[in-house]
Amino acid sequence: MAATPSWPPRSAPRLFVGHTLAEGASVSINGQQAHYLAKVMRVREGDVVILCDDQTGEWTSTVENVGKRSVELHVASNLRPREDVPDLWLCAALLKKDRFDLVMEKATELGVARIMPIVTRRCVADKLNLERAQNIVTEAAEQCARTALPLIEAPIKLQALLHDWPQDRALYFADEMGGDPALDAFSSDQRASALLVGPEGGFDEAERAMIRAHPSARPISLGPRILRGETAAIVALAVWMAAKGDWSN
User: Fold this and answer.
1) What is the pTM of this model?
2) Span between the terminal Cα atoms of the chain, in Å
3) Total structural domains in the chain?
4) If you write DSSP's letter for every residue of 226-243 in order, what string do you get?
């Protein structure tokens, strides 16, 4: 007996759109997304496209018309609601562009709720193109079938981050000088969580002392080896997701 084809097709393109979706709605895709559908994926009338709006979840739609600059879609049915996102923030020091791109991409894939770029004394960058950053996390979410996008903040200086930090949220500080084993720390603390990861050169001594003096900060260790900033962020997120996130589901 032939296998029943999956529905919707696994090969169907996935896109996030900027407005709320509903059954029977018409959606016009323009710009780079239209180019992707028409020229890269080569969709035709009747083809299926999966749409997400970061509000109501994931929807099937069918192609009604492929024009020179736009693709018209008809929204058919809701496949699943917007996912429940684990309440985890990533406070990551800015790195060289390609490395911070990797952090944002992998943080999105791992399910983080919020990305907060941090400026420290040893950062090699102090600016972030938010439009470009949003495109990176959106494409990552489309690739890994997320139905929610992480919130991306504008860069903030470390001192300002600590000054305004919410008292009810644990700030796990990945300290290369040592701390509680990350898995033990995550498993034993029931507060809302955030991870703080430093730049290529690490935090300087004054910054480290300032962080450790903060009442919400808890130094953690990510093992016996010194990790790059991007590696530390990815590892910390993975361990947290295994200990307190949604991997068990």
Assistant:
1) 0.91
2) 33
3) 2
4) ---HHHHHHHHHHHHHHH
